[in-house]
């Protein structure tokens, strides 16, 4: 799976959160980090070139800090410039691709609800992107929301790292089965880059997960047989 | 009432709808037409100057064609540049001012609902602006939505003209009483600019509306008396 991470952030160099994401994304071979603000700072962009480029990817991620309940202006500028009605609606050039949203906010996620200081849920606030995915016949992924990154403990950041890597290239939706498949693929990949003495340990881990998966499959089969007899 | 009409439209000169609005707004003495795309095409903007400027107005209107379920990028750029957290949240510099949205769309308004091609209502799509008004402690006015302007008949455009003028400077909410007050103010203003032979006709019209208002007030008083006796 090829993933494009379109980052909209006017001060990307100063952002600890984006640095964290960038370092994480570097672990994923088939992901491409694409800073829209850098793109616009260089020269006038070429919509035709951008349209050809974006079609190479299976999963497109809009990644940004929430600025006044939307993305910063650079993503909107890109959408206005590149996502012409012809490209999106007439030729349906992004049809069936996945659209993910990675959004960061300094406010606590619990403030995003009726009665909270932000009043509306993140689902409501991101509705324009969902409506866009709908119009483009894309698959809208559950948004990946990171609140108050700078207050997080190290263990929370580690969990966040794994969740982010999965958001970049695990099959969706993130069921237990899909998570496990993804984990096995990561371990097998790591094995190739590892010293021989550690490969044995990884083999044991991979074997253990495979065995567990076999057990789960057996148990599921048993449940199915029991249910079939009941009917 | 002083009204600022902030127009976000990358091709404002080619837009028949914006030309119509511009001509209409010229009738309203205390309204200021402000093209954000022109502003940005000239030079780097000065946030301090913009902040001082915008505070002169009582009603601020964001006016734009709906581009991918939001405003074009220039309004977002302006919000990102000028509406700093300090200006909006810490000093609450726009507190109690009114925020209006004038939004135009080529799709029929009936498509904006569950089951329609646009799926979401305009209220849902404009939620980020409502959330902004909430955060700025502004009064969010009912958005003024104009769909399929180019297909409208002349009489519909005339009705639209009056409704737009009211949206610019009538007291809100637009109750019958507020509409009538606004109409009387417009007629009295017109009288000053009119030839003497027509002033008599306007006087008759103004007198008739005043008489009707007196009758309505009497009837309301009667209803109140009857209700009071019932209790």
From TrEMBL, chains A, B:
PANTHER family: GLUTATHIONE-REGULATED POTASSIUM-EFFLUX SYSTEM ANCILLARY PROTEIN KEFG. InterPro entries: Flavodoxin_fold (IPR003680), Flavoprotein-like_sf (IPR029039), KefG/KefF (IPR046980). It comes from Lentilactobacillus diolivorans. The keyword Lipid biosynthesis does not apply. It comes from the Bacteria. Residues 1-159 form the Flavodoxin-like fold domain. Keywords: Oxidoreductase. This is NAD(P)H dehydrogenase.
